[in-house]
Amino acid sequence: MTSRPDVAGSPDSVAGSVTWLTLGQAAKHVGVAERTLRRWADAGRLTAYSTPGGHRRFRVTDVEAFLESARSSPDTEHKSQVLLIDDDERRRASVAYVFEADGCDVCEAARAKDVFDAVDAAPPDLILMNVAVDGIDGIELLCRLRDAHGLEAVSVVMFTGAGPGHDASRARVAPPQPAGLIEAARRVLGAVPASAA
User: Fold this and answer.
1) How does DSSP classify residue 176?
2) Which of 22, 23, 134, 195 places its Cα 20 to 30 Å from the Cα of 36?
3) Is residue 28 in some structural domain?
4) What stretch of H or E contains 42?
5) Is residue 1 included in any domain, yes or no?
6) pTM assigned to the model
């Protein structure tokens, strides 16, 4: 449930220092999609306030307390969230199996239209994606995803099954074999065992 901010003047600042965040600002600060933060506020996990115009505002102190609680909670072990975007079912299955065995939660998307729902369901720590999925350029898809969900800080490993002439100037890509993808993604996640380093 939301209530109105109990501050005078602008809900965004008090005495020159920022004390309130908009929904978009709070979502970026926490590192989740706006829809996810909205759901958390509706469920009472994070206190939200409503302006006279009906817009949500979040106190910085509440957001920081929420993050600190999530970090220090002993009964919630953080699992890395991996979003795997690839239309090759066999490669997806191979890669997903390894990361699940590593203790990660893996969300798969075979088509571009499924990617946005996947991010809503579980904001990723890593996006592992084919450069071309479902006929859409992967770099364009990634830009749309970042614009829509504020995922600028999320690491991305891109790969392609195309030959060497496939627009290699636009992105550095990993080899398409599952072993190469897994090695690159583990490096990004910091999940390579010490003995294998």
Assistant:
1) S
2) 134
3) yes
4) helix 34-42
5) no
6) 0.54
Residues 6+ apart with CB under 8 A from 151: 119, 123, 124, 127, 145
Of 101, 100, 112, 18, the C-alpha closest to 58 is 18
Length of the chain: 197
CB contact set of 50 (below 8 Å; sequence gap of 6+) = 2, 3, 4, 5, 56, 57
Verify that 112 and 141 share a domain, yes or no: yes
Clarify whether residues 110 and 162 are in a common domain: yes
Q: Return the DSSP state at 16.
A: T
Indicate whether 197 belongs to any domain.
no
Are 87 and 168 contained in the same domain? yes
Please report how the helices 112-121 and 138-149 are oriented relative to each other, as an axis angle in degrees rounded to 10: 30
Q: Do the bridges between strand 56-59 and strand 136-137 make them parallel or antiparallel, or are there none, so unpaired?
A: unpaired
User: Taking a C-beta distance cutoff of 8 angstroms, is the pair 8, 54 a contact?
Assistant: no
Pairing of the two strands 155-159 and 126-130:
parallel
Give kind and range of the element (H or E) at residue 85.
Answer: strand 81-85
**Co-location of 46 and 65 in the same domain:** yes
| Domain-located, residue 7 | no
pLDDT tens digits for 72-128? 655 555 678 888 888 888 888 888 888 888 888 888 888 877 888 788 777 788 888
